[in-house]
Amino acid sequence: MSTVANVLVALIALLHVYILVMEMFLWRTPRTRASFGLTEEMAEATAVMAGNQGLYNGFLAAGLFWGLFAADPTGREVTIFFLLCVAVAGVYGSLTASRRIVFIQTVPAVLALAAVLAS
Q: What is the residue-wise DSSP string for 63-91?
């Protein structure tokens, strides 16, 4: 894969590590509550669910890192698969939770996917 593709994939993987940290460990903090538009009560009531979501975001990050470090053709195929997973998760999230998710997850994943496929 090209350097541009690798950088985009790494940035998306790091984004998902950041989301993991927010959802698993920082869910009840004022900054994370503000990011997700939650009251203190709602954050408390949804903390277990958010932790579960964070774990799934960690799996996406792990898959992207695996793709970056695995030898081709496996690395490229794994990267394509996990970028598609990120894009689909972003579409679903934008339809069910917040429309801005499509810009945070789907658009970057599609751009990275285009870079991977072009390289």
A: HHHHHHHSPTTHHHHHHHHHHHHHHHHHH
pTM of the model as a whole: 0.91
Domain ranges of the chain: 3-118
- What is the helix (H) or strand (E) element at residue 41, kind and residue range? helix 40-69
Distance CA 53, CA 57 (A): 6
Contact 93, 51 (CB under 8 A): no
If you average pLDDT over residues 5-13, what whole number do you get? 97
**What is the identity of the amino acid at 107?**
V
CA-nearest of 3, 20, 109 to 64 is 109
Q: Long-range contacts: 37-45, Cβ < 8 Å, 24+?
A: 37/98
55: number of CA atoms within 13 Å, CB side? 6
Task: Tell how many helices (H) and how many strands (E) occur in the chain.
Answer: 6, 0
